[in-house]
Amino acid sequence: ENVVNYTVVVGVDNRAGKLLPGMTATVDFQVQTAEGVLLVPNAALRFRPSAEMLNAAGTGTSAPAESGARRPRDSAAAPAAGAGERPRGNFATLWYIDDASALATTRVRTGISDGILTEIEGPDVREGMQVIAGVLTQGENGTANPFRQDRPDRRTRGGF
Asked: 113 pairs with which residues across the strands?
């Protein structure tokens, strides 16, 4: 349901005879490659700090950064394309911990992605940066579960 199947003919080297007629296979098509680039988890490009995080960082605002609030230590504007160069990719805001252990942002240009990691480039981007991809909170019993929404007014009965 809601699945589309396509019949595709792909030529491959099968000298070892591991592929047999009628077999089902999963094929990945490589459409772009890049070497020597910096990669970040896609979650880091989607991350937005909470109002509490911004307040703790000393921004003096309770509004999330997306709504136009002042960002902590916002670095240079988006990189510009050179003369005659066509800009490639999109831009995103990357939140990270700077050398002074403070919350900071930088604007990055995104490149190709494999669905898990995305190529980035920008004037303040360097290998080994401590980028923020999410926040892990600790529950009352000392265990952390990023998928559970703790609601103090909600009572659970038995079960798992």
From this structure: 118
Q: How many residues are present in the chain?
A: 160
Helices vs. strands in the chain: H and E counts, helices first: 2, 5
User: How open is the CA angle 137-141-146, to the nearest 5 degrees?
Assistant: 30
150: nearest Cα among 158, 107, 18, 142: 142
Write the burial class of residue 106 (CB in 10 Å: 0-12 exposed, 13-18 middle, 19+ buried).
buried
Pairing between β-strand 91-97 and β-strand 130-131 as defined by DSSP bridges: antiparallel
The predicted-structure confidence for 16-44, as pLDDT tens digits, reads as follows: 999 898 888 788 888 899 999 999 999 99
Query: Could you tell me which of 77, 88, 92, 79 has the C-alpha nearest to residue 45?
Result: 92
Q: Where are the alpha helices (DSSP H) in 68-122?
A: none
Please, is 71 exposed, middle or buried when counting C-beta atoms within 10 Å of its C-beta (0-12, 13-18, 19+)? buried
What is the rounded distance in angstroms from the CA atom of residue 138 to the CA atom of residue 98?
A: 24
How do residues 46-59 score in pLDDT, each as one tens digit? 999 888 888 877 75
